[in-house]
Specification:
The protein has 104 residues and is mainly alpha-helical. Helices cover 70% and strands 0% of the residues.
Length: 104
């Protein structure tokens, strides 16, 4: 922040709010694609963004959930857990843990 030009602050705030408005429905949708609760999508969207805002060095970089990864996790884990495509509430906790471990 030492070399930051304070004149860019209003534009940077507007950009941050714009990205935040887009990442909320995107993160929720990607979580549903992966078969996870929508809250997990919000965590997956905001945690890397906040972390990168604090520690990142590149000005142009996109971080967060990706559609392809969500589809692959959802399809692969659903095949492991069930044959009819529906995960029971008893299995949902184990599914969530495996999805998080697989994505990391």
């Amino acid at each position: 922040l030492e070399g930051y030009n304070i004149r860019f602050l209003p534009i940077d705030l507007l950009s941050g709010f714009t990205v935040g408005a887009m990442v909320i429905p995107q993160g929720m949708s990607y979580a549903k694609l992966a078969g996870l609760p929508v809250e997990y999508g919000l965590y997956a969207a905001f945690t890397p963004t906040i972390g990168y805002a604090l520690f990142g060095t590149c000005q142009q970089l996109a971080v967060g959930p990706v559609a392809v990864l969500s589809l692959l996790i959802g399809d692969g884990l659903t095949k492991i857990f069930t044959t009819d495509g529906e995960i029971s509430t008893d299995q949902q906790g184990q599914y969530n843990i495996l999805a998080i471990q697989t994505s990391l």
